[in-house]
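Researcher: Next sequence.
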Amino acid sequence: MSARHKVVPPVTPQIVQLSRRQRIVRLVLLGLAFLLTATLAWQAGRRQAPAQVPAPHVAEALQNRIRTLEQERDALRNEITALERRLKTVQHSPAQKKPVTKPARAQSARKNTKPARQKAAAPKPETVSVAPPKSAPPTRVAAQAEPATVPPPSPKPEPARLQLEDIQLAPGDTPGQYRLSFSVRRDGEGTRRVAGAAWIAVDGRRGREPVHLSFHKLSDDGRKHVKLSLEREQRVEEILQLPPDIEARQLLLEIKPWGSGIEGSSRKLRWDDILLP
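Model: Next structure:
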Protein backbone atom coordinates (compact mmCIF):
# COMPACT_ATOMS: atom_id res chain seq x y z
CA MET A 1 0.00 0.00 0.00
CA SER A 2 1.55 3.20 -1.14
CA ALA A 3 1.74 6.17 1.16
CA ARG A 4 0.08 9.38 0.16
CA HIS A 5 2.20 12.44 -0.14
CA LYS A 6 0.57 15.71 0.54
CA VAL A 7 1.05 18.09 -2.33
CA VAL A 8 2.03 21.53 -1.16
CA PRO A 9 1.18 24.30 -3.59
CA PRO A 10 4.09 26.57 -4.61
CA VAL A 11 4.50 29.75 -2.57
CA THR A 12 4.34 32.90 -4.65
CA PRO A 13 6.61 35.69 -3.29
CA GLN A 14 4.80 38.82 -2.51
CA ILE A 15 6.26 42.25 -3.21
CA VAL A 16 6.00 44.37 -0.12
CA GLN A 17 5.05 47.86 -1.10
CA LEU A 18 6.64 50.67 0.94
CA SER A 19 4.37 53.16 2.41
CA ARG A 20 4.59 56.84 1.50
CA ARG A 21 6.12 57.70 4.86
CA GLN A 22 8.87 55.10 4.43
CA ARG A 23 9.73 56.42 0.96
CA ILE A 24 10.04 59.98 2.29
CA VAL A 25 12.31 58.83 5.14
CA ARG A 26 14.51 56.92 2.69
CA LEU A 27 14.85 59.95 0.37
CA VAL A 28 15.74 62.20 3.30
CA LEU A 29 18.43 59.77 4.50
CA LEU A 30 19.90 59.55 0.98
CA GLY A 31 20.00 63.36 0.71
CA LEU A 32 21.73 63.70 4.08
CA ALA A 33 24.31 61.08 3.11
CA PHE A 34 25.00 62.92 -0.17
CA LEU A 35 25.43 66.28 1.60
CA LEU A 36 27.75 64.74 4.19
CA THR A 37 29.90 63.15 1.47
CA ALA A 38 30.10 66.42 -0.51
CA THR A 39 31.06 68.39 2.62
CA LEU A 40 33.84 65.97 3.54
CA ALA A 41 35.19 65.99 -0.03
CA TRP A 42 35.17 69.82 -0.14
CA GLN A 43 37.04 70.12 3.16
CA ALA A 44 39.64 67.57 2.06
CA GLY A 45 40.19 69.41 -1.22
CA ARG A 46 40.51 72.72 0.59
CA ARG A 47 43.24 71.33 2.86
CA GLN A 48 45.19 69.95 -0.09
CA ALA A 49 44.67 72.97 -2.36
CA PRO A 50 47.91 74.72 -3.43
CA ALA A 51 48.75 78.20 -2.23
CA GLN A 52 46.97 80.96 -4.02
CA VAL A 53 49.00 82.37 -6.89
CA PRO A 54 49.37 86.15 -6.59
CA ALA A 55 47.74 88.25 -9.24
CA PRO A 56 49.95 89.73 -12.01
CA HIS A 57 49.75 93.29 -10.64
CA VAL A 58 50.75 92.03 -7.20
CA ALA A 59 53.80 90.28 -8.69
CA GLU A 60 54.81 93.47 -10.53
CA ALA A 61 54.48 95.49 -7.32
CA LEU A 62 56.70 92.98 -5.52
CA GLN A 63 59.27 93.17 -8.32
CA ASN A 64 59.27 96.98 -8.08
CA ARG A 65 59.77 96.75 -4.33
CA ILE A 66 62.66 94.31 -4.78
CA ARG A 67 64.26 96.62 -7.36
CA THR A 68 63.93 99.62 -5.00
CA LEU A 69 65.45 97.69 -2.09
CA GLU A 70 68.36 96.57 -4.28
CA GLN A 71 69.06 100.20 -5.25
CA GLU A 72 68.97 101.24 -1.59
CA ARG A 73 71.31 98.35 -0.76
CA ASP A 74 73.80 99.51 -3.43
CA ALA A 75 73.64 103.09 -2.14
CA LEU A 76 74.27 101.96 1.44
CA ARG A 77 77.14 99.75 0.29
CA ASN A 78 78.77 102.71 -1.50
CA GLU A 79 78.32 104.90 1.58
CA ILE A 80 79.87 102.23 3.84
CA THR A 81 82.85 101.91 1.47
CA ALA A 82 83.39 105.70 1.52
CA LEU A 83 83.18 105.81 5.33
CA GLU A 84 85.66 102.93 5.69
CA ARG A 85 88.08 104.69 3.32
CA ARG A 86 87.74 107.90 5.29
CA LEU A 87 88.28 106.05 8.61
CA LYS A 88 91.51 104.46 7.31
CA THR A 89 92.76 107.86 6.15
CA VAL A 90 92.08 109.42 9.56
CA GLN A 91 93.72 106.52 11.42
CA HIS A 92 96.93 106.80 9.37
CA SER A 93 97.15 110.61 9.51
CA PRO A 94 100.07 112.10 11.57
CA ALA A 95 97.64 114.13 13.69
CA GLN A 96 96.49 110.92 15.40
CA LYS A 97 100.01 110.17 16.71
CA LYS A 98 100.96 112.22 19.79
CA PRO A 99 104.59 113.45 19.54
CA VAL A 100 106.80 113.48 22.62
CA THR A 101 106.78 117.02 24.07
CA LYS A 102 109.79 118.82 25.50
CA PRO A 103 108.65 118.57 29.17
CA ALA A 104 108.26 114.81 28.75
CA ARG A 105 111.77 114.55 27.28
CA ALA A 106 113.22 116.64 30.15
CA GLN A 107 111.46 114.47 32.73
CA SER A 108 112.85 111.34 31.06
CA ALA A 109 116.35 112.85 31.09
CA ARG A 110 116.07 113.62 34.82
CA LYS A 111 115.06 110.02 35.51
CA ASN A 112 118.07 108.77 33.56
CA THR A 113 120.57 111.08 35.36
CA LYS A 114 119.30 110.27 38.88
CA PRO A 115 120.92 106.77 39.08
CA ALA A 116 124.17 108.20 37.76
CA ARG A 117 124.25 110.85 40.51
CA GLN A 118 123.56 108.23 43.16
CA LYS A 119 126.50 106.18 41.90
CA ALA A 120 128.77 109.23 42.00
CA ALA A 121 127.78 110.10 45.62
CA ALA A 122 128.48 106.56 46.92
CA PRO A 123 131.64 106.18 49.20
CA LYS A 124 134.75 105.23 47.32
CA PRO A 125 136.78 102.20 48.55
CA GLU A 126 140.35 102.70 49.85
CA THR A 127 143.04 102.12 47.27
CA VAL A 128 146.81 101.49 47.65
CA SER A 129 147.55 103.71 44.67
CA VAL A 130 149.25 106.99 45.50
CA ALA A 131 147.62 108.81 42.64
CA PRO A 132 144.48 110.61 43.57
CA PRO A 133 141.36 108.87 42.39
CA LYS A 134 139.77 110.20 39.26
CA SER A 135 136.24 111.36 39.49
CA ALA A 136 133.75 109.69 37.27
CA PRO A 137 132.89 111.64 34.15
CA PRO A 138 129.45 113.22 34.13
CA THR A 139 126.81 111.10 32.55
CA ARG A 140 125.47 112.47 29.32
CA VAL A 141 121.91 111.82 28.33
CA ALA A 142 121.48 111.03 24.69
CA ALA A 143 118.96 113.25 23.04
CA GLN A 144 115.92 111.36 21.96
CA ALA A 145 115.25 111.36 18.27
CA GLU A 146 112.13 113.07 17.04
CA PRO A 147 109.47 110.59 15.91
CA ALA A 148 109.46 110.16 12.19
CA THR A 149 106.45 111.66 10.50
CA VAL A 150 104.54 108.95 8.67
CA PRO A 151 103.04 110.34 5.47
CA PRO A 152 99.34 109.69 5.05
CA PRO A 153 98.56 106.79 2.73
CA SER A 154 97.70 107.69 -0.78
CA PRO A 155 93.96 107.43 -1.44
CA LYS A 156 92.83 104.29 -3.17
CA PRO A 157 91.64 104.64 -6.75
CA GLU A 158 87.93 104.90 -7.25
CA PRO A 159 86.28 101.58 -8.16
CA ALA A 160 85.36 100.99 -11.77
CA ARG A 161 81.78 101.90 -12.73
CA LEU A 162 79.48 101.34 -15.69
CA GLN A 163 77.99 104.59 -16.99
CA LEU A 164 74.90 105.23 -19.15
CA GLU A 165 75.52 107.72 -21.96
CA ASP A 166 73.99 109.03 -25.21
CA ILE A 167 70.41 107.87 -24.50
CA GLN A 168 68.14 108.34 -27.54
CA LEU A 169 64.45 107.52 -28.07
CA ALA A 170 62.71 107.88 -31.44
CA PRO A 171 59.31 106.81 -32.86
CA GLY A 172 59.23 103.51 -34.77
CA ASP A 173 57.56 102.44 -37.98
CA THR A 174 54.20 101.47 -36.44
CA PRO A 175 51.97 103.13 -33.82
CA GLY A 176 53.21 102.45 -30.30
CA GLN A 177 56.66 101.33 -31.50
CA TYR A 178 59.82 103.16 -30.36
CA ARG A 179 63.54 102.74 -31.05
CA LEU A 180 65.72 103.03 -27.93
CA SER A 181 69.52 103.23 -28.05
CA PHE A 182 72.17 104.02 -25.42
CA SER A 183 75.85 103.44 -24.71
CA VAL A 184 77.35 101.61 -21.73
CA ARG A 185 80.86 102.86 -20.94
CA ARG A 186 83.29 101.55 -18.34
CA ASP A 187 85.16 104.03 -16.12
CA GLY A 188 88.27 103.37 -14.05
CA GLU A 189 91.31 101.21 -14.63
CA GLY A 190 91.36 97.68 -15.96
CA THR A 191 90.90 96.07 -19.35
CA ARG A 192 89.28 92.74 -18.55
CA ARG A 193 85.93 92.00 -20.17
CA VAL A 194 82.87 92.79 -18.07
CA ALA A 195 79.60 90.86 -18.34
CA GLY A 196 76.30 92.12 -16.97
CA ALA A 197 72.69 92.98 -17.79
CA ALA A 198 70.57 96.04 -18.56
CA TRP A 199 66.97 96.37 -17.38
CA ILE A 200 64.53 98.57 -19.30
CA ALA A 201 61.10 99.60 -18.00
CA VAL A 202 58.41 102.21 -18.69
CA ASP A 203 56.11 103.90 -16.19
CA GLY A 204 52.87 105.28 -17.55
CA ARG A 205 49.11 105.44 -17.16
CA ARG A 206 46.12 103.53 -18.44
CA GLY A 207 43.42 106.13 -18.00
CA ARG A 208 43.87 107.22 -14.37
CA GLU A 209 45.54 104.02 -13.20
CA PRO A 210 49.38 103.95 -12.97
CA VAL A 211 51.04 101.14 -14.94
CA HIS A 212 54.59 99.72 -14.83
CA LEU A 213 55.76 97.83 -17.93
CA SER A 214 58.90 95.71 -17.69
CA PHE A 215 61.13 94.78 -20.63
CA HIS A 216 59.44 91.37 -20.68
CA LYS A 217 56.23 93.10 -21.85
CA LEU A 218 57.96 95.67 -24.07
CA SER A 219 60.20 93.35 -26.11
CA ASP A 220 58.88 91.35 -29.05
CA ASP A 221 60.64 88.14 -27.94
CA GLY A 222 59.69 88.26 -24.23
CA ARG A 223 63.22 88.81 -22.85
CA LYS A 224 63.58 90.02 -19.27
CA HIS A 225 66.84 91.97 -19.75
CA VAL A 226 69.55 92.85 -22.26
CA LYS A 227 72.86 91.00 -21.97
CA LEU A 228 76.04 93.11 -21.71
CA SER A 229 79.61 92.09 -22.57
CA LEU A 230 82.20 94.84 -23.01
CA GLU A 231 85.80 95.85 -22.40
CA ARG A 232 85.43 99.64 -22.57
CA GLU A 233 82.12 100.51 -24.31
CA GLN A 234 79.04 98.83 -25.84
CA ARG A 235 76.17 100.29 -27.88
CA VAL A 236 72.68 98.89 -27.16
CA GLU A 237 69.72 99.25 -29.57
CA GLU A 238 66.26 97.83 -28.81
CA ILE A 239 62.68 98.10 -30.12
CA LEU A 240 59.97 98.89 -27.54
CA GLN A 241 56.31 98.12 -28.31
CA LEU A 242 53.80 99.90 -26.05
CA PRO A 243 50.16 98.78 -25.73
CA PRO A 244 47.75 101.12 -27.53
CA ASP A 245 45.98 102.25 -24.32
CA ILE A 246 49.18 103.18 -22.41
CA GLU A 247 50.42 106.76 -22.04
CA ALA A 248 54.18 106.62 -21.30
CA ARG A 249 55.51 109.01 -18.64
CA GLN A 250 59.01 107.83 -17.61
CA LEU A 251 61.82 105.63 -18.96
CA LEU A 252 63.79 103.59 -16.42
CA LEU A 253 67.26 102.20 -17.21
CA GLU A 254 69.48 100.17 -14.89
CA ILE A 255 72.76 98.37 -15.61
CA LYS A 256 74.48 95.90 -13.30
CA PRO A 257 77.71 93.94 -13.85
CA TRP A 258 78.05 90.36 -12.72
CA GLY A 259 80.68 89.87 -10.01
CA SER A 260 82.40 92.28 -7.61
CA GLY A 261 84.82 95.16 -8.14
CA ILE A 262 82.65 97.12 -10.61
CA GLU A 263 79.61 99.20 -9.74
CA GLY A 264 76.49 99.72 -11.84
CA SER A 265 74.26 102.75 -12.37
CA SER A 266 70.65 103.67 -13.12
CA ARG A 267 68.73 106.55 -14.74
CA LYS A 268 65.12 107.72 -14.63
CA LEU A 269 64.18 110.03 -17.52
CA ARG A 270 61.00 111.84 -18.54
CA TRP A 271 59.57 110.27 -21.68
CA ASP A 272 58.73 113.57 -23.38
CA ASP A 273 62.18 115.05 -22.64
CA ILE A 274 64.15 112.37 -24.50
CA LEU A 275 61.64 111.51 -27.26
CA LEU A 276 62.90 112.81 -30.59
CA PRO A 277 60.37 114.35 -33.00
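Model: The radius of gyration is 47 Å. Residues 100 and 146 are 8 Å apart (CA to CA).
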